[in-house]
Each structure stands twice: as structure tokens, then as C-alpha cells.
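[agent] plan:
  1. take the single chain provided in the ticket
  2. run structure prediction with default settings
  3. attach C-alpha cells to the ticket
  4. add a short note for the reviewer (M.T.)
[agent] executing step 1
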Amino acid sequence: MRSSNPSHAFGPVRRRVATGATAAFLGLTVALGGTLASPASAADTAALSGIVLGVGANETQRTVTWYSSADTTQVVQVAPTAQVVNGEFPAGTATFDAAGAANIATSGGFNRHATITGLKEDTAYSYRVGTEGNWSSAYSFKTQDFEGDYDFLFYGDPQIGSSGDLAQDQAGWQDTVDVSLKANPNAELLVSGGDQVESANNESQWNAFLAPDGLRQYPWAATIGNHDVGGKAYEQHFSTPNTDRSAPYYDNGNPAGTKSGGDYWYIYKDVLFIDLNSNSYNSANGGGDAAHTAYVTDVINKHGDEAKWKVLVYHHAIYSPASHAKDSDNKTRRVDFPTTFSKLGVDLVLQGHDHSYSRSYLIKNGEKANPAEQPGAADVYPGPGGVLYVTGNSASGSKYYDITTPDNSGTSGAGNGADPLNPKNYWYNSVQNQEHVRSYVKVQVRNDKLVVENLRSGTCAAPNSDAAPCNNTPADQPVGSVVDKVTVHPYHGDKQDLQVNVPNPAPGEFGWTIDGYNGLVDLGTAVEKNGDHFEAGGKINPILVSDTRRSLAPWTVSANVSDFRDADKTFSGSYLGWTPYVLDGGAGAKAGKPVASGYDDHGPGLSISRGIGSADQGHARGTAKLGADLDLKIPDTVTKGGYRSTLTITALSS
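[agent] step 2 finished; step 3 output follows
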């Protein structure tokens, strides 16, 4: 950084350079997955479509996935939005190489995906995909603080196309995304409950699902549903971090076959997210529930200590209120999953599939953890092993399932018996709701609680494909109103857990100022020497240097002098030399080298920039005072007069 200003004859001079002003650039780390087919010429023009921003392995990453009509080598180009002027990305913009392959025949074209790494917190970024001369439109996203509180949004089954009216399903989905992001512009993740589309390989439905620009501005954490699993388009459209696509996580046990699959995990700030392909529930081919519980166990054993909260996401709701509640596969999962989740300390499970909203009681080892927990309680206290299960309603309005009636099959395990405290509900559900209106779930992640809210994103009015029979009253239950809200308080046992938030340290500052009053440096009347020149001397006003930066970066302070002038009479500043010194040590200061008057060595003297003082990388923080003795030698050919010059001081630091 640079600060360059003249020291005036009167008044103080103060110049500071803050380290925070340094421009931040992305690293060029390349994350590859998959392989590229033989590339066509870069000159070939590719139509670029289906761009979607995805979640990365942590808050410093994002993935980007898209379709290309041509098999060309492509990249994601990313720059801080502040550096993009009139749509032009600056020279040297960071790029991240894309990988991919040919799409299946019904999709056509090719898929590409890349991982953006090295993002900085609290920064707006712009990005585009393609190659030089063939770029997509530019989109933007913003990172926030990489520590502390944040919100994420969860969306149940858009299932675009399930109503038979593709345009209306798209409109309902678009409206939910718009409503939810307008109400929560600082949400940091969009989490999927699965079933993005009705038909796995129908690209018209995928295009409708991907239509909202919010999916290019906020990272989408994809979840695979039973309507997504039947083809390869899900894997073509989404790139997910830390993904295990081995045979146990495909319901046909064949990753190279015609279906999509995989389990994956990521950590975002204080939450460890684990996302499962619950379509693979059959133990044939080494898969099924046992494979998923082993996967969850392994991830939590390895990474559970890296986060305060553990959240699981999968499609098939095991505690839900509608037609899928009594499905045999869900009843099997209801036996296979809960005990493992309780033992591993899972806090929250987000589910889809049943196109209705429910919030469970706290469930421990497949039973209600506390028989006394009341329906609709606003605050719950899990204790050891208590897990909250939430099922999301339709986010698009394309399809709703009505709540079904409990039976006499029992009030634990796989049973679907009635809740003794609220017999119209299943034993496991604290809240059940179906109004035939769109909704989404907001989760607030806080230091000592999770706040889970189900919020209406629509009413009975269009766009709402499957509205009838709708029992929402817009005046009393408008868009944005709360269906349900619960605060989950973590278990501390008989201990007292202590919490302290440590912010980023202040970056500090580097700068200089004239010490004291910046008066005229008067060198007096020059004295004739040896019959051929005049000499004068003095001292500069001391320069106070302060460096409180944590980076301990090197610094230099230097100066140069203008020609001496009296009206139209001048002589060269090269005749001024000096001997710098350190008056007060600190900030790693060391004096610059002496500079001879140009009269002595025919050199440039101080007419060019010369160092007064400097410090090396790693120096201590602190304050130093620099000075210099001036040595002016003037040829006797210079005309009599009162001459003045200006000393310009420059501070440099990385």
C-alpha cells in the first residue's frame, strides 16, 4: 500500500494505511471430479444452461454445475463483485477448471461442474461459466461471517410436473423461493427435502425447477428423492461435496447403471450436515439402512467434534402424518434409524416425501423421549438422545397429501397408534398440519439453541396447483405467517457448559505522522566553504511510525525532495543529502542508509526516493520515531536568494 504526501511548511501531517484495504484474491485451487470427454475446439460455441450454485465442503467453498451443448473445456470465473466494472471481469480473475461428461441421451449435451475454493468471508462475488469468448451471464452470491449464528431454509418436495400443469408448478416454486428469500435475504443455505421433479429424466421439469435465480445466488444442498432417483439427470445437475457414490448407496447397487445415488456430508459453520439417499433401503448388494447408519456413524465419529450441531437430511420421512406414514419401507426405517441417531447425538432430522408438515416429539431410541412432553410445545429439551424430526410440506403446491388416521398398531417403534395426549395425531407427532398451501422451514442456528419454524409461502390462491380442499384463511394465515415454531435447547447434563465468542482480531494499522508540530525546517544561512560552494545543515521534523497490524508485514518510509526554488531561480534537490537514524526504537525500525549530497559524488542525492527507515517481515508491533540529519552543499554559482523545497514522504507496506 502507498501513502504519498508532501510535508507542508505549517500544520500537522498525518497519514495512515490500513491493512484491510489490501485487495483480496481467490486461490487457484482446482477441485476435479469426473473426467472430460475429448474436448472440441475452444472456438466452438456452446449453449450454457441449467446453472445452479451448490454447497461446498465448508463455508469457504461453493460448487457450480451446468449443462453445455458442446464438449468444450470450460471453467468457472469468479471475482469480488466490487472489481467487476460494467460487467467486465478484471484481468487475472480466478478461474476453476470444470470436469464433466456426456449426458444421457434423453438429456442431450454435456454436464460440467467445478468447485470454487478460497472464498473470503463477508464478500460479494460475481461468477460466470464457459470460456473466453463464450461466457454465460454473470450471477452473484455473498459470503457472510464464517463463525457464529446463521439461518438456513429447508424446502419439501417441489416435485415439478406432478400436478400435470408444468407452468403452474414452476410458478408456485418460483413464488416460494422468492417469498422465502425476500423474507430471509441473509439466509446462507437452501436445503432440499428431495423430489425436485416428477420424472427423473424430464429436462423440461428440471428447467422449470432451476428457473428461480435464487438457485444461482444461494447454495442449494440437494437431496435425492424417489422421483429423482430413476435416472442420471440428478447427478448431472448437482455436484455435492464429500460424496460416496459406491454401490451400497444406490438402490440397484450399481453406480454405473441408470440411476442416481450417493450419501454426502459437509460442515457449514457450527453444523455438521449429513445427507442420505434413503431410496437405497434394500440390503441387497450390501446397501440398505445398515449401510446408511454405518455411514452416519463413521462421519460423526470422524467429524462430529468439529461442529456444535448435527443435522441429518433424507427424503423418506419416518415420522410424518399423511399417506406415506404407513408405508412398509418407512416403518422399516422407523425401526432401523432412530436408535443409531439417538446414540450419535443427532439434533435434527429434516425429511420430505409425505407432502404435509409435521414436527415430532423428541424421539429417543424409537420412542417418545419424555411421555410428558405436550403437543405443540414451544420449547423442548432433548436430554441425552432426544432427536427432533421435521417433515416439510410441498414448496411448490404441485401436490399435497391429506393427514391420515392413527390405528391400533402401537405407540413406539414401527407403530402408527394415536397420541394419548392428542388422539387425532400419530403418537410420534407433536404438530401435524395440512392446509393445502405452500410452506418452507426456516432453521435458526444459534450458540445455544436451534429455532425451527414452518412458514407459509402461499395461500389458497394461484399459483397453487393442488389447492382443493384448501382450509387456509388469507386474512388470518397470510403469506409469511407461522404454522409452527419450536426452540430446541441442547442437553448439558449435570455440567455447566461455558461459551465465549472470539471475534476476528482487529487487523491493525500501519501509518506515519510528523511528531509534534510540523514547522518549517529552516536550514539557516548557508556558509561558504573552500571558496567554491556553500553548506547548510539541519534536522527533519521527526517522523512517528506506528504499526499495530497482526500480519507483521514489512514496511519502509522513504522521501525525496523537489528542486529548491525562489521565484524563477532554482537549484537541484540532488545537492541535499542526509544521514537517517532511529530516535526511538520499536516496530522493528532500522535506519536507512546515508545519502551523500550530489555535490560530493555527482549523484542524485535526495532528488530520488531514499529510505529513512524500514522493518522486516515478522517485526514486533509498536511505534518508532525516525529522524535524519540534513547535509546541503550548494555550488557557488547559485544566485543569492531565499530558497524553499518540499520533502515528500512515502510509506510502503504489503
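[agent] step 4 note for reviewer: Residues 1-43 have pLDDT under 50 and may be disordered.
[agent] ticket updated
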